[in-house]
Design brief:
- The termini are far apart.
- The protein is α+β, with helices and mostly antiparallel strands.
- It has a single domain, classed as 3-Layer(aba) Sandwich (Endonuclease, Chain A), CATH 3.40.960.10.
- The chain has a 4-stranded mixed sheet, sandwiched between helices.
- A hairpin with a 2-residue loop joins strand 1 and strand 2.
- It is globular, with a radius of gyration of 17 Å.
- Helices cover about 50% and strands about 15% of the residues.
Length: about 180
């Protein structure tokens, strides 16, 4: 409990407001998800998330079809092929798609879980958390991905290349 207090800046004995309760609920849900993953990996169970962390990318390892579509499209570009990691754990969260070598997170926001004000607030908190850890976050709506997946890929590859340059990451496409 002390870890949770420190993480969220909650004073001992303080009452939690609705926003803090939501943050705590999301945090605990993500912790449980990570624990299930660790347990499955320990048992060598072939879970989708476990296989994703091993580097295999197939549609069954994504939480949504739009994630799978964007991951597939990214795999067709030489600059990003084989580098994107689906469901990548960062702190208490799993990033939809990540390029951990440059701390680039891609979030695919479908209408079902990202449309009401509470969802938007949760996404903003998540983005702020990742930014504090030095991650850059690109968000695409499901509509953007469905209507112009290669436009999304172009935005990702442009930022990926920029981050590689800024951080001095040398990649195979440079020869």
């Amino acid at each position: 409990m002390e870890e949770i207090r420190k993480l969220f800046g909650i004073e001992p004995g303080a009452k939690l407001g609705a926003e803090d309760q939501e943050k705590l609920r999301v945090y605990l849900w993500q912790r449980e998800k990570q624990e299930r993953l660790r347990t499955a990996q320990a048992m060598k169970a072939p879970t989708p998330i476990g296989r994703a962390m091993d580097g295999a990318i197939t549609p069954s390892e994504h939480e949504s079809p739009i994630e799978a579509d964007l991951a597939y499209a990214l795999s067709t570009k030489s600059m990003t092929a084989g580098r994107v990691k689906p469901q990548y754990g960062v702190g208490p969260y799993f990033v939809d798609l990540a390029f951990p070598e440059v701390k680039l997170a891609i979030e695919c926001d479908g209408r079902r879980f990202h449309s009401d004000p509470a969802d938007v607030a949760r996404d903003q908190h998540r983005t702020q958390y990742l930014a504090k850890l030095g991650w850059r976050v690109l968000r695409f709506s499901g509509r953007e991905i469905k209507q112009d997946v290669y436009g999304c890929v172009d935005a990702v590859t442009k930022l990926y290349e920029q981050l590689c340059t800024e951080q001095g990451v040398r990649e195979p496409w440079e020869g």
